[in-house]
Amino acid sequence: MAQTRQSTQSGMVEKRGRSLWLTHVLMIIGVLVVFFPIWLAFVASTVTQADIVSPPMPLVPGEHFFENYKKALFSGINVPVSTMLINSLIMAIGIALGKIAISLVSAFAIVYFKFPGRTFFFWLIFLTLMLPVEVRIVPTYEVIAGFGMLNSYSGLILPLVASATATFLFRQFFLTIPDELAEAARVDGARPMRFFIDIVIPMSRTNIAALFVILFIYGWNQYLWPLLITTDPEMNTIVMGIKQMFPSGDDFADWPVIMATSILAMIPPVIVVVSMQKLFVRGLVDSEK
Amino acid sequence: MEKRVTFKGWKLPLLLIFPQLLISVVFFFYPAGQAIWQSLFIPDPFGLSSQFVGLGNFEFLLSDQYYRASFLTTAIFSILVTVVSMVVALFLAVMADRLIKGAGVYRTLLIWPYAVAPAVAGVLWLFMFNTRVGVVSWYVGLLGYDWNHVLNGGEAMGLVVVASSWGRISYNFLFFFAALQAVPKSVIEAAAIDGARFWRRFFTIVLPLLSPTVFFLLVVNIVYAFFETFGVIHTITSGGPQQSTTILVYKVFSDGFVGQDLGSSAAQSVVLLVLVGALTIVQFKFIEKRVHY
């Protein structure tokens, strides 16, 4: 009996004393290992090229933070990083808002109307899930080139704007809106668009916000597509522009500036994810349903 | 599922659905159709005319040793990325789940890598393992190991696997953590009273309860490794050395844009199309299961 009690204490709880302490230590080691690449990039962005090219480089920040970031932001290597940041921002927001807008209206049409071809259109949208950019890169590039949209924001944004995922998400959500609301709106003689704007959109606020967080990061982190269609450095996005900063020959890369750019490239999405953590987690879970 | 109450009319809904359809047709279906069409032809070197070859491009692909090697590379790469990122994430999630206080802080810290683009992750890891200035490669060198992923295909593969898995830990961690929190405490306590130790409880009770999450993450991570790791590979190895890290998506890019071999690139796109289709169907099957659970 005494033995059982003892084993229950140490076995069931296991959340006290040494065991708890050990768990914290393991967790901290885990976090440190996961963080190490980011920390090292930050350190490299605060030291001089000389510190880096004679390994091992220091593991604590140096004193050249402002110098390196100023150089990256305002002169860069091919183009100032501030230009690339603006391009990325426009692309990410354009993709997120575009996807949300067209998905909201098409989901509304699919849920609240019975019209010829509805099922067919629904499946058509569903099929786009199976066609990621990566499997149709050459022909999509040709379409964009044909429209003269190379090196333009519309070329960066439009091909990534259709999203079956967002349409499904809104469809699922609209189906949970009580029928009484639509009924009441109809009895009051409200037009469908009034109902959409006054009732459906306000009710979808949280879903829209959660999706925005996910889609912003999706858009910001695009690599292959901007790499293909922005040949003009002025149109480079920051995520694809970093690779362009490496010299093609045998020269040393300008590591402090490249690492400062890497840090700048991760700041906006990190701020979005960390500050809107609840929405982010919700968006992540929702968009995988 | 259907709405009982719907609005009348067909012009308005068609108008509402039009933007999405237009984008889908112009940027999805037409290019996919083009890829299928182009896969049946071989253009001449000047791009002036092309010759119909039927399934010739596919026959050539299947007999091409580089393409078959790329298939194998993709399989190894995706399995490794999936296993590494899931095992690390599961371990961290199990640890975090044991904590009453502070789990939220660790979670906030562990979601950072999700926000880091694969291409940026590639640059970070390239920097650590750079053959001339890398810190890790330098310390590894002190231990007597000469790290050189530029020449050694195995090391190149290891590096792209680690860099790709790193960004994926956050995602897997969040799903595992949520699933662990949902495991009924009474079941675990009952096992604890019966004297089952932590790891025994984990393998006999918790892990089976997590199986829907595990299956779901398996599929999602394989899709990720197939299609979203292009940035990592392009920044770190550019598919080298000797194509040892050329996964299928990278090959479509390098044959189509760098090699200008459009017929073959299109045929490869079609093969990928079939693969994504299959994976999407599997994904939906598993998600259905997960929801029913």
**H-E order of chain B:** HEEHHHHHHHHHHHH
CATH topology of chain B: MetI-like fold
State which percent range the strand residues of chain B make up.
under 5%
Main pleated-sheet profile of chain A: none
The most extensive interface, with participating residues per chain, is: A-B, 108 and 101 residues
The number of strands of chain A is 0
Notable characteristics:
heterodimer, A: about 290 residues, mainly alpha, MetI-like fold, 2 domains, 16 helices, about 70% helix, globular, disordered N terminus, B: about 290 residues, two-stranded antiparallel ribbon, 13 helices, 2 strands, about 75% helix
Sequence-ordered SSE layout with sheet pairings:
The complex is a heterodimer of chains A (289) and B (293).
Chain A: H1 2-13, H2 17-44, H3 49-53, H4 65-74, H5 81-112, H6 118-127, H7 137-146, H8 153-157, H9 164-176, H10 179-187, H11 192-203, H12 205-220, H13 224-229, H14 238-244, H15 255-275, H16 277-287
Helix pairs in contact in A: 2-15, 4-15, 5-9, 5-12, 12-16
Chain B: H1 11-38, E1 41-43, E2 50-52, H2 56-63, H3 65-98, H4 103-110, H5 112-115, H6 118-129, H7 135-142, H8 153-182, H9 185-193, H10 198-227, H11 230-236, H12 248-258, H13 262-292
Antiparallel strand pairs in B: 1-2
Helix pairs in contact in B: 1-13, 2-13, 3-8, 3-10, 6-8, 6-11, 8-10, 9-10, 10-13, 12-13
